């Protein structure tokens, strides 16, 4: 991971990743202390720095505290397809760290703050505290759902439907970790990034944004986006929030069978 600055870990670790986990699993102070003990360091990463490089081994999990990144594939013709946007509370290294070699690159789209642990240490924690293994599987299920939506975007949704779905999804994910208001948010990516994520040219994307504004569905000032008619936007985008269920509580251990009384 090039060009990073190491810092001393914050003693009061309770960032967006923990906020996200608490949505679907109970975490005791001892759980958080164990997870925090894995962290090697905080990292400050500059904008436009690659965090993961396609084709190279990567064996870290980086929890995004601040900033935005993109997971992408660079094609032979020089075109870039962004497959996902990484926001506060997300994990860099999922799924790249679970492969022999990363299949996608990850680039910082802004200055970022990351909390880093090794994959091996996290797996060891999962053996000691299985709830973290369950939490990771829940995160993977959420990732899979978002990737499925990207397939529908490129395959079936019209350009304006793609854009509407993208705006609603980003808002929903930011709100989950307390980074967005009920009906408005700061769009954390540029139009160039959005065009690479949605498979649209920047001029066409601009026209679709203008149409959403003209149809009274959104208002935009700079990067501040406000949902004026959220219901209409959701209907047009076929949007359903990917809300995870809570992880079921472990069942109580079964009582041992009663022993038969010996004959007197």
Question: What characteristics describe this protein?
Answer:
8 helices, globular, Jelly Rolls, 21% strand, 264 residues
Structure described in brief:
This protein is an alpha+beta fold.
Number of helices: 8
Shape: globular
- Taking all Cα atoms into account, the compactness measure Rg is 21 Å
Distance between the termini: 74 Å
Summarize model confidence as the mean pLDDT. Answer: 91
Helix- and strand-based class?
alpha+beta
**Proportion in β-strands:** 15-25%
Number of strands: 12
- At the first level of CATH, what is the class? Mainly Beta
Kindly state the percentage of residues in helix. Answer: 25-40%
Question: What is this structure's SSE topology?
Answer:
Blueprint: E1 4-7, H1 16-21, H2 29-37, E2 41-45, E3 50-52, E4 60-66, E5 69-74, E6 80-86, E7 91-92, E8 105-108, E9 112-118, H3 119-128, H4 130-155, H5 159-176, E10 184-186, H6 191-198, H7 202-214, E11 218-221, E12 224-227, H8 230-237
Antiparallel strand pairs: 1-2, 2-9, 3-8, 4-7, 4-9, 5-6, 5-8, 10-12, 11-12
Helix pairs in contact: 3-4, 5-7, 5-8
